[in-house]
Write a structure and sequence with these properties.
The chain is an alpha+beta fold and about 240 residues long. The strands form two sheets. Strands 3, 4, 5, 6, 7, 8, 9, 10, 11 and 12 form a ten-stranded mixed beta sheet that branches. The chain has a two-stranded parallel sheet with strand order 1-2. The longest helix has 17 residues. The radius of gyration is 20 Å and the shape is elongated. The two termini are about 25 Å apart.
């Protein structure tokens, strides 16, 4: 409950009353109880997991703030959180402001609800993209977005012809979102996003493991800390440590 940021009354031992009260402030997908007395309360006796299995999996049209809101559940519960975009840029100011906004807001959510999560950025080697050493030289443009006592690890990958690296994703071990248009959204514009299950997301995450079974690194990973310090990691260093 803590990760959801819900405020429950200690005066009442009736959890269903607390759940209904919180539903009015910020709705749940559903509440499962012994009896269904309201439309958003499902009976445990009649509940079928398929009722929720495919809920909201279709592609949605989202504004910038909508997109950040859709990320929320994964940011709060994912142990490994990966921002995947072949052209992901947060190392320069004034340009790509919406990308920096999305990234900053996401890290604030992780800091508040899920500070032990591992946060990663994965991008593709391209002549329009900076090298790891260039990002390191401009690391202050990145560290200013990272909440205190947190860090992120950045990976630059070679494109593998047998593995697709085009769409953009927020991937976690708990599921994720596919964002074909990427994290850059101008004011007044919208983008689309679709949900992925934990199985789908983890399969894609394996393409960005360091075991050599997926994409291959161009440079050793770069870790950037909130205090501005940086560290070049050994290729064999597990990104999860």
């Amino acid at each position: 409950m803590k990760k959801f940021g819900r405020v429950y009354s200690k005066k009442s031992s009736d959890w269903i009353s607390n759940a209904i009260d919180q539903h009015q402030h910020e709705s749940f997908g559903a509440i499962i109880a012994q009896e269904s007395k309201r439309s958003y309360i499902l009976s445990a006796k009649e509940f079928d997991e398929d009722d929720l299995k495919d809920k909201d999996r279709g592609r949605k049209s989202l504004t910038l703030m909508d997109l950040i809101s859709e990320f929320d559940i994964f940011l709060r519960f994912g142990d490994r959180i990966a921002f995947v975009d072949p052209y992901f840029r947060i190392d320069r100011k004034k340009k790509d402001d919406s990308v920096r906004c999305v990234f900053s807001r996401c890290l604030k959510t992780v800091k508040k609800f899920n500070p032990s999560a591992r946060c990663e950025i994965h991008y593709r080697n391209h002549d329009k993209m900076p090298s790891i050493s260039q990002i390191r030289r401009n690391s202050s443009n990145v560290s200013c977005l990272i909440p205190s006592e947190m860090n992120i690890t950045i990976y630059c990958w070679r494109k593998c012809n047998s593995i697709e690296f085009h769409d953009r994703y927020l991937l976690t071990d708990k599921g994720g979102l596919v964002i074909p248009g990427g994290f850059r959204i101008k004011d007044g514009e919208k983008t689309s996003a679709s949900y992925w299950s934990a199985e789908e997301a983890e399969k894609k995450l394996k393409c960005f493991d360091l075991d050599g079974s997926g994409h291959h690194l161009v440079d050793k990973p770069l870790r950037i800390y909130s205090n501005g310090l940086t560290n070049i990691l050994s290729e064999c260093t597990d990104s999860r440590t």
